[in-house]
Structures are given as C-alpha cells and as structure tokens.
Specification:
Blueprint: E1 2-5, H1 8-14, H2 17-27, E2 34-35, H3 38-58, H4 71-78, E3 79-81, H5 82-85, H6 87-106, H7 109-112, H8 133-151, H9 157-162, H10 164-170, H11 178-200, H12 205-231, H13 252-259, H14 262-287, H15 290-293, H16 298-305, H17 318-348, E4 352-353, E5 356-357, H18 358-381, H19 383-386, H20 390-394, H21 397-408, E6 413-416, H22 426-429, H23 437-443, H24 457-461, E7 467-470, E8 484-485, E9 488-489
Antiparallel strand pairs: 1-2, 1-3, 4-5, 6-7, 8-9
Helix pairs in contact: 2-3, 3-4, 6-11, 8-18, 11-12, 11-16, 12-16, 13-14, 17-18, 17-21
The protein binds iron/sulfur cluster (SF4) (2 copies).
Length: 493
C-alpha cells in the first residue's frame, strides 16, 4: 500500500545537525533507497542509530549517544503511495463505511434481537463471550495494538497518517500522532459501541442516560476540547482527567507548561488539584464513585461500551476479591510515593530522594508498569479474558481513592428487596467488578462495596426488581441482613 523512500532534504530537516554528523555515514545507504515495507525501513533506521550508539558507548563518548526517537518522524516523511495521496478517500472507506456496516448490524437488533436486556442464551458457549477462540484472538490483537502504539509507533505510521483528515479538521496546522490515533479510535469505539449499549439496555433509562454521558465526555472532553486548546496555543488538557489516574500531572514539565501558559494554564492547574481534593469527596459523598467511574471516565466509558460483551468474565471468587484489594491499593500507594518523589525533585531541584534517583526508580517504572502495561496492554487487551473492568478493578489508583471515600463516607448504596430474590444469579454473573451481588440480595443486605462503580447493570438484569441504586441519608446505610431461615425472618429493629 505504501512505499518508503527518504530524501536527503527530509532527513536533514528532521535529524539535528549535530546528529547528522554522526549518522551521515550510516544514512548514506538509506537515503533515496526504496523500501516496500515499513518494518524494513524502520529497522534500517533504528539499526543505523543503534550502530552509532554502540560505537560511541564502546568509545565512552557518552555525549554522542543519540536518545532522540527519530524513527517515527523519518517514517512519516518517507511514506509514499496511496495512503498519502488518497488519505481522505481511504479514511472514508475504512471508518465511514466501517461505521455504516457496524450500524447496519447493530440497529436491526431493536427488532431482530428480541426483547431488550441481557440474554443468557448460550452466552457461556459463545466463542466471543467465554474466552473462546474469537475472544482470545481479539485479546491478542488488542495486546499487539497496544504494544505497537506505546513502543513501536513507527511501524503503524500508515494508521497514523490515515487519521490526518480528522486532525486537520480540528487543528489544520497539526499532524496526527500516535496519541491522536489512539484518541480517535477510542472515541470511535465508545460512540459506535455506545449505540449498541443503548439499544441493548433500552428498557433502562439509567443505562441510556449513563451511556450518553460517557459518549459525551469521551468525545467532547477527552478528544475534541484538548485539541482545540492546542489550536489556540494553550496547553493540552483533559478537564475530566485527574491525578492519580493522570499520573504525569505533577511532572515538572507539566507543571511548568501549565503555570507558564497564562491565566488559563493557572486555572487548569488549580482545577486539576481542586477536582481531586474537593470534587472527589463531595461528589462521592452524594452520588458514590459512579459519578466518575460510570458517567465520566474514559476508561470506564470504553469498558461499559466496547467491553460490555465481556462483563460476565470477571472473577467472583473471594480470592480474586483479596487480590483486588491488595493490588489496587498497592498501586495507589505506589502512585503517591512516585508523586512525592517527582514533586520533591521539582521543588528542590535534587534528582535523588533517600539516595534513589526519582526518575529512574519511581517515575519511569510507574509510567512503564502502571501507565502503559497495566492500564493499556492488560487493562484493555485482557477484556476478553478477565472481563471489561480489569484495570478499574485491579489497577486504577483513582478508583481506589474513590472507593475508599465511597466505602466510608458516602450516601450511595444498593438496596436489596431480599424477599423478592429468586437466586437466579443474573446480578452476580453480570457484575463487571466481580461482586457477588446475589449473596447480598439473598440476605436482604445493602451492598456497600468500595469497588462498586454503580454501573447499575445488576439492577438492569434482575428479573425481579430486587436491586435499587440509592443515594439516601447515610444513616442505616450498611443495614442489617434480613435472614430467611428455619427460624423464620429476622427483621431490622
Ligand atoms: S454491584 Fe451492580 S452497580 Fe455495582 S459494579 Fe456490580 S453490577 Fe455495577
Ligand atoms: S437479585 Fe435479582 S438478579 Fe440477583 S439473584 Fe436475586 S433475582 Fe436474580
């Protein structure tokens, strides 16, 4: 589809002059050479830079080791062929026709799919829904995509160029990057699969409004608004994202970019702090963590829409619950320590805290292990294996913080009319956070769990109307179980 040929002018416009001196001998063989595959081109470019770096390291000329990531920019300018000449046409073919095709499959479900709501028919025999070949294949593809996106974006340059028309629509002077591609695909998935979600749960007003909410916040706040800000020469900023999920919020470069950007930048910085210091406790007190996890958050938005087919795969065992608590609170502690280290460096100018380099020992491992591998590669790639809320349940430090407030100081609870429960287990099966909802329902006990994201699906799939998401007074929130046993019914005093 594309060929790759690097001209000398392009090479000289991208590679810094001091690096050209070092790289010229290696790039003489690459320039004006034609490559038919991106993988071949990227490999020779990286090979040239690596050869120089090995030589300089061997000679201990550390200032001549090149750390700049040139492969992406060089691949972009070297790309020729149909993808660059007919970008808009290809974009329409892939995304517009793809959307029409998806909607042609989704929309008729209103009539053909029978009644709304969860259908249990064969769900655990389906290759997609129960870790079958289809689910595993999708998981492998997602993992591969995330690895390429995060670490080898030069190899997917054709995809990045493909979304240039959208980037230029929002900001004519910008070129799409791998992060723009990611934002676009993410939003695309939330919107298309959001329509599917609305059709599926069309009997529930709560599900319809909630899904519209995540579609809106992903499109307007996470995707379009930050790009408009950049077009207006303001810092890139997602107003609905916050620390500790936004783990680079307190990085020196980020603080500097906001505080040196004038009044709006200062406002953004203050907003970012206020929302997690004041916004979280206040909103969680009144509405539970659902206001964020199920109505606003992008990760939650993708999980609830594109991940809906996998919600039954969450592990309901007590062992999984224990692992969840250790893991998610461990990540929260790690994020706090990492942020203290980063802030310490920013305030004092010292790179070391207690003898450890704050970047090498804290910020870098956190970004790689939590920011990339856990939240992205595992968080989405493992939907078809561990359910759609792997990240929210086991890894998200913001979910942990919201959960602590929800558990100890909130009006939110799910009430259960235990007498009506027929123990069908729909609620537990489809709880994406692995909560054994039925266990509470059978006892007539309120559900007050830090992990509950208030998605409301347990309530939507209950055939007896047993479960109700409520924000009543705190008093009596935990409630006493109404036990139905051999000795009759024990009632709350
Ligand atoms: S308990 Fe219900 S509302 Fe809470 S996460 Fe599970 S399914 Fe969603
Ligand atoms: S609460 Fe509803 S969905 Fe859950 S087991 Fe009871 S009847 Fe079934």
């Amino acid at each position: 589809m594309s060929s790759y040929e690097l001209s000398r002018e392009d090479y000289q416009s991208i590679v810094k002059p001091e690096h050209q001196e070092l790289l010229d001998p290696y790039f003489d063989d690459i320039i004006d050479e034609s490559y038919s595959l991106s993988i071949s081109f990227v490999n020779v470019v990286n090979g040239a830079i690596n050869t120089n770096n090995q030589k300089m390291r061997a000679e201990q000329q550390w200032d001549k080791v090149i750390y700049d990531q040139y492969a992406s920019n060089l691949t972009r300018v070297a790309t020729h062929g149909i993808i660059k000449e007919h970008t808009s046409l290809l974009f329409i073919l892939v995304f517009v026709i793809g959307t029409i095709g998806s909607l042609m499959f989704i929309l008729p479900q209103v009539q053909l799919g029978g009644p709304s709501g969860i259908k249990n028919n064969g769900i655990f025999h389906h290759a997609l829904n129960n870790r079958g070949w289809l689910g595993i294949s999708i998981g492998v593809l997602l993992v591969a995509f995330y690895v390429l996106l995060y670490f080898y974006d030069a190899y997917i340059m054709n995809w990045i160029i493909l979304v240039d028309p959208v980037q230029k629509l929002i900001n004519p002077s910008a070129q799409a990057s791998q992060w723009f591609l990611y934002g676009f695909l993410y939003t695309f998935a939330v919107l298309v699969m959001g329509i599917r979600m609305i059709i599926k749960y069309r009997h529930s007003k709560y599900q319809i409004v909630r899904t519209l909410s995540v579609m809106f916040f992903q499109t307007a706040f996470a995707f379009i608004l930050p790009e408009i800000l950049v077009r207006l020469n303001q810092p890139y900023f997602d107003f609905k994202n916050m620390w500790p999920l936004d783990y680079d919020f307190f990085d020196a470069w980020h603080i500097q970019s906001l505080t040196t950007a004038g009044g709006l930048g200062i406002f953004m910085f203050a907003w970012g702090i206020t929302i997690f210091v004041v916004g979280v406790p206040v909103f969680v007190f009144f509405f539970g963590k659902r206001w964020y996890c199920s109505w606003v958050c992008g990760c939650g938005g993708l999980a609830e829409t594109a991940g809906d087919s996998f919600r039954q795969l969450s592990d309901k065992s007590v062992k999984a619950w224990k692992i969840e608590r250790y893991l998610i609170h461990g990540v929260l502690v790690f994020s706090i320590i990492m942020t203290i280290g980063v802030l310490y460096t920013f305030i004092t100018g010292s790179n070391t805290l207690l003898g450890l380099n704050t970047y090498t020992w804290l910020r870098q491992p956190y970004g790689f292990l939590i920011g990339s591998i856990f939240s992205g590669v595992i968080g989405t790639g493992f939907y078809p294996i561990m359910g759609n809320r792997v990240w929210c349940r086991f890894g998200c430090p913001l979910a942990a913080y919201l959960g602590i407030v929800q558990r100890f100081k909130s009006r939110f609870r799910i009430t259960t009319n235990g007498g009506q429960c027929i123990s069908c287990g729909n609620c537990s099966t489809y709880c994406e956070m692995g909560i054994d909802v039925r266990w509470y329902a059978q006892r007539g006990q309120n559900i007050v769990r830090s992990s509950c994201v208030g998605c409301g699906v347990c309530s939507a799939v209950c055939p007896r109307g047993v479960l109700n998401l409520e924000n009543r007074d705190e008093e009596g929130r935990f409630g006493e179980p109404i036990l139905i046993g051999n000795d009759g019914i024990q009632l709350e005093k």
